[in-house]
Amino acid sequence: MTPMTADVWRKAANALIAALNAFDASRVQTLFVADAVIDDPSTGHSFEGHDGIGDYVERYFKGYHTVTRFLSIDDIGADKARLRVDFTGDFGHETGVLVIRANAEGLLERIDADLE
User: Fold this and answer.
1) pTM for the whole thing?
2) Comparing C-alpha atoms, which of 93, 111, 92, 91 is closest to residue 101?
3) Residue 96 pLDDT exceeds 60
4) Which CATH number fits the domain 6-115, given the four candidates 3.30.930.10, 2.60.120.590, 3.10.450.50, 2.60.120.560?
């Protein structure tokens, strides 16, 4: 597998944040492999596959009018990066960490999300 470069990680992060901020579940789904997983303990749920990811976007981004802002990204291995983001919405303000894993094509395979 070819390691993701810093530029590729940033491009993937920007695409994800733009789609989330547009509340566009379909666009978010295209960034993930079909059997991807988002594990988010802050919601008490894990979301599997494109249907689960669409549900996640609808419930927690569109539903709470969540706006996500990029803070930083660190490469933590050949296929993982740690993305820090700022969330604001109907719930107030939170800072979060997304450990993202992608395949060689740059499609997201897994996100482990948590609040700081």
Assistant:
1) 0.94
2) 111
3) yes
4) 3.10.450.50
Could you tell me the maximum CA-CA distance found in the chain, to the nearest angstrom? 41
pLDDT at 2: 55
Domain residue limits, the chain: 6-115
